[in-house]
Specification:
single chain, mainly alpha, Tyrosyl-Transfer RNA Synthetase, 2 domains, two-stranded parallel sheet, 15 helices, 5 strands, 55% helix, binds adenosine-5'-tetraphosphate, protein biosynthesis, ATP binding
């Protein structure tokens, strides 16, 4: 089975990215034909700073490698190194109904948060469909925020197949129930562009500042609380052992959950969870040329696959004459 997913280098990768997508991708390494890529063309919809985008691309790659992605066991590349995706995106855009695009809430949410309403931001889902269909992916692990974009990719694939004949695999999303939406510090979806993240590789005082800023209610310590309505508890679910999670749940239900102490415990759990990866990341960051070599090799492999699909698409639509 071909499993594919990408990540934007639009800021420091955070624990929402990790539990929503990266962890699942890394765990798929042994049992699937895995495609992982850094979607820098997508990030251009929100990052207009050359140095930030270039450095963020290398850093996102270092993050994935440090967290355990083995480039020998998957195809790992940077989106813009396979320019065929842009041609496919254009071709797909010609069969994408406007109504389908106008229904996409991610565009509206981002504009409401102050991101410029560019054409690129609006047509983001078409480029994403091209990313997926170009490699004929069967399954796409994503967080719940990307579910609608996956539906666009499916609709576009079906529309193309109906119009021009069977060409694309229609991809299935994979969304884990437990990590579908990791909440940010303010309780909204954790998101780079919302400024509410806990970056994966933060440490020391900076990490403490973030964890202590997790929004909680003002119910007195000794009063019962509903753990399932609590942002802090949602984060514990990602890091605590089942036994400790049950103990903490009991504190909420019976009274005695002191947020300050719980935050310090969560801080330690997060810090320990990524300790080994943090060390590996420092090693990768010290050798950017090695990261570039890994990505270049991955792009060669990805491009071979991409060209097979694009050749078929060109033939199907009449671009070969
Ligand atoms: N809070 C989240 N919970 C679960 N999954 C999440 N993902 C992102 N945030 C959460 C998943 O991470 C993958 C990569 O995301 P992305 O960086 O490509 O784009 P995004 O979904 O738009 O992530 P951000 O952080 O919100 O980025 P910005 O703010 O730049 O747009 C995706 O599978 C996503 O579902």
């Amino acid at each position: 089975m071909k499993v594919l997913s990408g990540i934007q280098p639009s800021g420091q990768l955070h624990i929402g990215n990790y539990f929503g997508m990266m962890k699942t991708m890394i765990s798929n390494m042994e049992n699937s034909d895995l495609y992982v890529f850094i979607v820098n063309l997508h990030a251009l919809t929100s990052v207009h700073d050359r140095e930030k985008l270039a450095a963020g691309t290398l850093e996102a790659a270092a993050d994935f490698l440090a967290l355990g992605l083995d480039p020998e066991k998957c195809t790992f590349w940077v989106q813009s190194d396979v320019p065929e995706v842009c041609e496919l995106a254009w071709i797909l855009s010609t069969v994408t109904p406007m109504g389908l695009m106008e229904r996409c809430h991610s565009y509206k949410d981002k504009v409401a948060k102050g991101i410029d309403a560019s054409h690129g931001l609006f047509s983001y889902p078409v480029l994403m469909a091209a990313d997926i269909l170009l490699y004929q992916a069967d399954q796409v692990p994503v967080g719940k925020d990307q579910k609608q974009h996956l539906e666009v990719a499916r609709d576009v694939a079906q529309k193309f197949n109906n119009t021009f004949g069977e060409t694309f695999v229609v991809p299935e999303p994979f969304i884990s129930d437990t990590t579908a939406i990791v909440p940010g510090l303010d309780g909204q979806k954790m998101s780079k562009s919302y400024g509410n993240t806990i970056p994966i590789f933060l440490e020391g005082k900076q990490l403490k500042k973030k964890v202590m800023a997790i929004a909680t209610d003002a119910i007195p310590v000794e009063d019962p609380k509903d753990p399932d309505q609590c942002n802090l508890f949602a984060l514990f679910k990602l890091f605590a052992t089942p036994e400790r999670l049950q103990e903490i749940r009991n504190l909420y239900v019976n009274g005695g959950a002191a947020y300050g102490y719980l935050k310090l415990e969560l801080l330690e759990l997060i810090s320990d969870y990524y300790a080994e990866a943090r060390q590996k990341k420092a090693e990768y960051m010290a050798d950017p040329e090695m990261i570039r070599t890994v990505l270049r090799k991955g792009a060669i492999r990805a491009r071979e696959k991409a060209m097979v699909t694009l050749d078929l698409v060109r033939e199907r639509v009449g671009l070969k004459y």
